[in-house]
Amino acid sequence: MHIGMIGLGRMGGNMYKRLSEAGIKVTGYDRDPAVSDVASVAELVEALPAPRIVWVMVPSGDITRGTVEELGNLLSEGDLVIEGGNSRFSDDFEHAKVLSAKGIEYVDCGVSGGVWGLKNGYGLMVGGDAKNVERALPVFDALRPEGPREEGFVHVGEIGAGHYAKMVHNGIEYGLMQAYAEGYELLAAKDIVKDVTGSFKAWTRGTVVRSWLLDLLVKGLEEDPGFSQITGYVNDSGEGRWTIEECIANAVPAPVMTAALYARFTSRQDDSPAMKAVAALRNQFGGHAVTSAGPTSGAGAVK
């Protein structure tokens, strides 16, 4: 089998390697000529046997849309595009529409596994027609973890369903990470706890909170005890916001995922304007002390 892959960054590059190690021939294109097999998308298309399969693994939004449109002008009827980036599920409808007008098939695939996917395999959530999913199964089987197919791969439903499932997956991930993080802060704050890292490590076997995320937290603590080498600034890549928007649209209560997303917003504020307002209000109605700003900020309180 021979496929094309556009986007050879951290995820795409490792997926390229995993596919190659499984015996699937991959021709890759990336804007970085140092990692690219060909000089252009057009050259990639020319290198593939018909009917072609091209996996798109580039940043979501305008870059993905532009890549899909470019492929629409280069591919032929019966070719297949698999979009595996972190796109919003609603973008899949537009991508499929652009390609279907030219007889080009489309499948969306939510991919989880991060930098560990090369070794462990990737969790794959696929949306699209069954015939197109079946056609690409050798690719999905090469990328997914070893073992039963249903443990690491799912054909979720129609176009858009794969990215929708990945969106919800990431919303859950936000909540899990925030819970572990809050537990870490509480353990670290209590002077009777002398081994915070050891506490988390003890939970990795036999407890109900064990998980791969917990394993990774332990690894992070062992590499940087107290997380002294990093700041608490946390970005979000979009899926968390989209999950909450979908919860609102479907009247699904999601207090944990919502709070986790807002916690990330809080992490980016050096001095929260909202909390300044809360402090001022407490002072106004109850005479509660407030902390002065300036060079002595944090050193004491004034009324």
From TrEMBL:
Keyword annotations from UniProtKB, A to Z: Gluconate utilization, Oxidoreductase
6-phosphogluconate dehydrogenase C-terminal domain location is 162-294
Looking up InterPro entries in the UniProt record yields:
6-PGluconate_DH-like_C_sf (IPR008927), 6DGDH_YqeC (IPR004849), 6PGD_dom2 (IPR013328), 6PGDH_C (IPR006114), 6PGDH_NADP-bd (IPR006115), NAD(P)-bd_dom_sf (IPR036291), Pgluconate_DH (IPR006183)
Q: Which domain of life is it from?
A: Bacteria
Give the EC number(s) listed in the UniProt record: 1.1.1.343, 1.1.1.44
Give the GO molecular function terms.
phosphogluconate dehydrogenase (decarboxylating) activity
Q: What is this protein called?
A: 6-phosphogluconate dehydrogenase
